[in-house]
Design a protein that fits this description.
Largest sheet: 9 strands, antiparallel
Number of strands: 19
Number of helices: 3
Radius of gyration: 17 Å
Order of helices and strands: EHEEEEEEEEEEEHEEEEEEEH
Shape: globular
Strand content: 35-45%
Helix content: under 10%
Distance between the termini: 23 Å
Structural class: mainly beta
Length: 249
């Protein structure tokens, strides 16, 4: 497992194009690698990111502001999943801007716009899964802290052929604990702390901290802090040959 405290990374936000970026795992790269990659993007008002694809599987978690992703509303808080080499977009921020997390189990080499000449020649075999979750509403502090027992909600259902891909929301009262999702039969998952805090290996993780649980790890034991916790588990599908081999040479 690997973990990062958002509060330690947020001061390093930097300007990128018309928006801003905070690297959480990994760094900017134009070369694929086997290392984790996760970051926050803050889009300025009415900013547009043209339709494109990436060469790695990824989740995006829309966390603040408003906007659209293709024909779907990028409501706060929702998760979006896209397989590698699967086009999506455009992303268009609303009047107040839009912020989202991008979560990848391996490092991407940069987006490829669908307007690129001969773009079809750059595509690889993929299942072309592209999904948006139902909206997540966070609890007010006293409701979260006094939850009687842990609650697990599914906001992106695993469909036939999804090979483990799903999104869960786990709500814990003060100092409650529960096992995270199984790792067997998946491509691993990110735990995204959305509300309250999670205790992990002697540290406290507050919003929007991340914990990566690899498919070779045992399921994480989620332990809430003194105010409770609400987290999202974004579970990747089993890696295909492309994902297994990417960055390994």
């Amino acid at each position: 497992m690997e973990a990062v405290q958002y509060a330690e990374k947020e001061p390093d936000r930097f300007k990128r194009g018309k928006g801003w970026k905070v690297n959480l795992f990994g760094k900017n790269s134009d070369v694929p690698a086997k290392d984790l990659q996760a970051f926050r993007i803050d889009m300025s008002a009415n900013m547009q990111l043209d339709s494109h694809f990436h060469i790695v599987d990824q989740f995006q978690i829309f966390m603040a502001g408003s906007g659209t992703i293709g024909r779907d509303d990028a409501a706060t808080i929702t998760a979006h999943y896209a397989d590698h080499h699967t086009g999506y977009g455009p992303l268009i921020a609303g009047e107040q801007g839009m912020s989202y997390l991008t979560l990848r189990p391996k490092t991407d080499a940069g987006l490829v716009k669908l307007s690129t000449p001969n773009v079809r020649d750059l595509l690889k075999p993929t299942k072309r899964r592209h999904r948006v979750s139902s909206k997540v509403v966070l609890s007010i502090p006293p409701v979260m802290a006094h939850l009687e027992k842990p609650v697990v909600e599914t906001v992106m259902e695993e469909m036939p052929g999804d090979e483990g891909m799903t999104v869960k929301v786990i709500r814990l009262g003060a100092e409650q604990s529960v096992d995270g999702p199984a790792t067997e039969g998946t491509g691993g998952y990110f735990i995204i702390v959305m509300n309250g805090s999670v205790l992990h290996e002697g540290k406290e993780y507050e919003p929007w901290s991340l914990i990566w649980v690899a498919h070779t790890d045992a399921p994480i034991k989620l332990e809430a802090g003194s105010k409770g916790a609400e987290v999202m588990a974004s579970v990747f599908p089993v890696w295909d040959d492309w994902m297994r081999e990417l960055g390994e040479s």
